[in-house]
Write a structure and sequence with these properties.
19 strands, 4-stranded antiparallel beta sheet, alpha/beta, 8-stranded mixed beta sheet, single chain, 16 helices
């Protein structure tokens, strides 16, 4: 039975045989290669109106963008943590290939000669610019890859109020905070990032195509957003939970999640002391998501005013999802649906069906090969994912691959059209039927009748995994980064 990597390599060589569509034909433009705008959002989960019209968090600008291209309703991150997710998406290589499993992993040491997707476009003559959170932002931006940009504006540092807005000094760190902040919207991190991208769209370089990356930080914690974004969510409901949810979880789940258990326990302790705190936390997340959507809208406005609007490929994705208490868990760092399900939109003039919705399961290893194909660049045979250009042309086209997610060595989830299968490093398992149990409350892995389902999903789990790369230390910050 083929391993995931073997299947991936076979599919890649099939693409090599078929070949790429030249950029000028892919976009329907006979005069210039297409520009590319990639928008990556931090921590935006699936509780948004883009994916569900009845969802409480309204994202009109994401919906506006989706009308121009294809929205993938079953899109998943590669890993539910910032650094491994972004490293995998920008390089096209999974954690099991590179050894980049955690938020501290030195991803560039793991793949020193690997071109990021930005470097592929630099080599093709593109002017590559970016701003905001593109790579992991810890250690004062040490994870950033300066060689991937001709020009880059780092993410503005987070400002903090003198006292925590949630009045919970004992709970977590300064980042474990939420409420209206900063007093002036112009001082918010993402306004600064959007301003740079707006200028880049208004004043692209002369003569050549542009590749622009816009890294939106919110709704990442602390859940700070300007005050005007809060009233819309005064009456937001709380996530639905099952008090018995953890009764059927295997040892592997308990082991993986034990380091983050303090977040949910602390929230419940705070709720008992100051009733309404949990609601305010959820409200603040929603306000941050709406604020992020508004900044994306500003960037799209600038694109609409650009003469290159009709010759620009736009991709929007989130680096992972986020639990707001579902399954008694807060944060990402889990292999369940809420931690991994993300918004993903591709607009490709002349290729992507406007307003298309694709329910095929995909993970973000598809971004690298998709952009190469759309812009007529050479296929990279090392990619762990396949191009979704066939799904852009026909969102209901046949797609045999499930989405694969990894968090820390040995822990993997496989998401097919109907099922989520999880196998932990200790061999314990979970299986959920999303047709009957979208909240993932009933673990079916122990029922013998589902053995064939588990077997069919288990074959996508990597048969071998790279050893974890060393963690990046502050002293290891490279010159020019």
């Amino acid at each position: 039975m083929q391993s995931y990597q073997a299947a991936c390599r076979m599919m890649t060589w099939m693409v090599l045989v078929v070949g790429c569509t030249p950029a000028t034909l892919a976009t329907g433009n006979n005069t210039a290669n297409p520009d590319v705008l990639v928008i990556v959002v931090d921590d935006m989960n699936d509780w948004v109106s883009l994916l569900d019209p009845n969802a409480p968090i309204k994202t009109p600008h994401l919906k506006r963008l989706a009308k121009r291209g294809v929205s993938f309703t079953r899109a998943y991150c590669v890993s539910p943590a910032c650094n491994p997710s972004r490293a995998a998406t920008w390089t096209g290589l999974r954690p099991s290939t590179t050894g980049v499993y955690g938020n501290k992993s030195d991803w560039r040491q793991a793949v020193p000669s690997r071109r990021t997707i930005m470097q592929q476009f630099m080599a093709a003559g593109y002017d590559v610019r970016g701003a905001g959170k593109v790579f992991h932002h810890h250690l004062d931006g040490a994870f950033h890859d300066g060689a991937s940009f001709h020009d880059f504006q780092p993410m503005r540092p987070q400002s903090y109020p003198r006292e925590k807005r949630n009045q919970a000094d004992e709970y977590g760190s300064r980042n474990t905070d939420w409420g209206p902040w900063p007093p002036r919207e112009s001082d918010a991190i993402d306004v600064h990032t959007a301003d740079y991208c707006i200028d880049a769209l208004r004043q692209p370089s002369d003569g050549g195509p542009q590749f622009l990356v816009c890294g939106i930080f919110k709704p990442h914690s602390p859940f700070f957003a300007p005050a005007e974004y809060f009233p819309a969510y005064d009456n937001i409901g709380l996530p639905v939970r099952d008090p018995n949810d953890w009764n059927d979880l295997p040892d592997g789940a308990h082991s993986l999640l034990q380091q983050k258990a303090w977040f949910w326990r602390g929230m419940m302790d705070l709720e008992r002391r100051a009733k309404g705190s949990y609601h305010d936390f959820v409200q603040a997340y929603a306000a941050c998501a709406s604020f992020a959507d508004a900044q994306i809208g500003r960037v799209l406005d600038a694109l609409d005013q650009s003469p290159r609007r009709n010759n620009t490929i736009v991709v929007l994705w989130s680096d992972h999802g986020f639990h707001l208490g579902e399954k008694d868990h807060i944060e990402k760092f889990a292999l369940w649906e809420k931690a991994t399900h993300i918004p993903f939109i591709v607009v490709a003039p002349g290729v992507a069906v406007p307003g298309g919705r694709c329910d095929r399961p995909v993970d973000m290893t598809v971004l690298y090969p998709t952009l190469l194909e759309l812009c007529g660049l050479p296929v990279d045979a090392r990619c762990d994912g396949n191009s979704v250009v066939p799904l852009l042309r026909d969102p209901q086209a046949r797609w045999v691959r499930p989405a694969l997610m990894t968090y820390l060595p040995g822990n993997h989830a496989v998401r097919s059209q109907r099922w989520r299968y999880i196998r932990y490093a200790d061999g314990s398992e979970e299986l959920y039927d999303h047709n009957a149990d979208p909240d993932e409350w009933i673990n079916l892995a122990g029922e013998h009748r589902y053995a064939p389902v588990i077997k069919s999903h288990r074959r996508w789990i990597p048969e071998s995994e790279a050893k974890p790369v060393v963690d990046l230390q502050r002293a290891g910050k490279k010159a020019g980064q």
